Structure prediction request, 771 residues.
Amino acid sequence: MQGWLLRALWIGLLASGLIAAAHALSFVRDLPSAYSRLSPLSLEERRRLLHEDGFMELMEAARRAFPEPRTVAVWVPEADPGALADLVRAAERWYKAGYYLYPHRVLPLGSAWGLPDLAAAGLLDPALLPLLEARYLPLSRATEPLGILAFRPRIRDRLESALLDQTAVATSQVVDVRRPLEQRLDVPVAEAWLSSIDLEIDGLTRDEAIGAGIWDGSGRGSPLGQAVRRGPSPAPPERFVFTPPIRVGSGQFLLRISHRGGGDGTVRVRGRAGYVWLRAFAVEPAALPLAIHDAGTLFVVETARP
Amino acid sequence: MTALRVLAALGFPLLVGLGVARALPAVWGSSPLRWGAAFGLGSGLLTLEMFAFALAGLSWDPLGLALLPTACAAAAVVLGGRTEGSRQPARPALPPWRRVTRIGLTLVLVLLAGGSFVRAGLTPLSSWDGFAIWGFKAKALYVDGTVAGGFLLDPVRGYSHPDYPLHLPLLMAWVFLVLGEWHDGFVMLLFPAFYASLLLVCYAMLARLGPPEVALLFTLGLASVPQLLDHASAAMADLPLAYHLTAGVALLVRYLERGDRSTLLAAALMMGVAGWTKNEGMAIFAVAALWIGAGTVMREDGRRKALSDTLTFAAAGGAVFLPWLGWRLSFGLTTDLVTAPSALAGLASAPGRLVLIATALATEATHLSRWNLLWPLFLLASLLALGRWRARSLHLYAAAAWSGIGLYGLVYLLSARDLPWLLSTSLDRLLLHLAPLAVLTIGSAALAGRRPAADPPDSRRPGEL
Prediction:
């Protein structure tokens, strides 16, 4: 019996040696291509390759948006609450953001993950848990300033639907238009604002809004909200009151928007050739930022309690 | 300049470990074992020093941290004796084919280890646990400059498993400190360093059982196990833990053979660092302490020493990870993997859970693209062990590996977590902890009774203790 076992062991070792040789060969064979592909790249570029499109840009945008440590919420939507793959993906984004953004504290939003812990820690009102577990933003009750990082895809609809259930009443906003690539910053900021940013009102694009006669499309005029006197949607007019964008610093514009609630309620700031970094300062405790979108891959929204 | 800093960050733990090895000259028996164990011992002691500095409120200045280990290593070099390896007599010339075989196999091993360094060096921090646990903590420790940072107690960051030991995060933070910046590219080079050290340890132990060419072949078999090769360039703690466990068991085998306290101390330190690396290491350390007691009782001259040696092992090894354990328990950072209610529930539903565990284990162990034929061969070698009563090293390696499997099986049985989820997310990594021991078992079974051809390690018969 022992002899048979020993023979079987040696035969198995021979077979495993062949498999091992194949593995080793494959490992060594793949090295030159990996080396030639990755070695010329900077670490930052390799990180970009490692993650999904736009992730590192979002991290960079967040670092610029929030220079001081603070709590940042990562919106981690799930297509299907029961889908394990989506949960895994959501958690992975949360963990990665936690790693890259430390010392910022990164909260998961838009998911039931960890919410009871957050409530137990006094970060969220426990009464809101059922609401939160249904994937609503807890911004109106959060006990400290939040930044929100949101990922595409699917973010737009979910963010909007969450926001629209709130009753935002007044928000003043500072809009900062930037380009993700440093070498493209030679475009004058004022021109960048005018040429690359659109407001999208009630689900209409800039051109559609202009065609419908609800917006002159210039972004100028006083008040801009004159363009919203009537809307194509069932929503009542004059939900929004815009002031003209006022340049308040290099690359920054102040845009006051009052939202009176009801209706579709969507206002999008769309960046055509970059991303939009919008800092929103809530005027009232229950205030919410407007839904902000870009045409690219990511956006960052920061809100703060007054 | 950056290259020098990287070299210093990686080389310093090795130098510290070599200093410790110099202070315990009777332990090693061969240079590969000494060099293989050095990196783990050094990294363990360096990170313990960082932990002590943090608790004492001292800052982590790299030069300040390097001062004490450097002084100790220098004293060990000056005062320490010669190692056994360096006392070996000149060896007879080898036939050309054997020399060529050795050189060829060594080159392939160097290629695999070197390739792992290249692959790790090209890849930024990766893997789920790398982001959520090890890399995150390393960055937090580096940014905070201390262990006492609130991130361990922050429920928002609870996903980082604050109850996990800090050996690896502190070692990664050490790299950042020496580099002077957070750099998740260079820090990845730590992992192939553990891989190469593991291969050295395994080669050293296999070379005691048979000709070096055959030992190199078995080492190559281990080195090319896909799961191991993958972890050689991934920011996970499982390969470092596998290395510390294997080196610890190797030293325990030498201790049971020799019965000397210095080897016991080295084994205790290595197993203690395993406990300082992952919680699984602490549990296996406790099992090892029991095995020490049993092993020394079985020695003809060891019965009276059994208790004192077991206590020495427990005290020396426990001194490595108990400070961390006490510190984290003082903050209420407990491990909830197994709780009293879950244990009762697990026992109540034991038959069904055992079937689930066994099925998952069998499925995983026969996963050729992860393990090659490692685990079926380990099973064969274990069966062989039943009939080979004189091959004690075979029994020791098999017992160590099966103890680990049994321990992990018990944890699965009693765990509070959802069992299918737990199995699917951890079983492959837990088997990785024991894979080198499985290779040593297979090697021992295949080589038991054969005499090393050219360089016998000592006067004992190979394969026997």
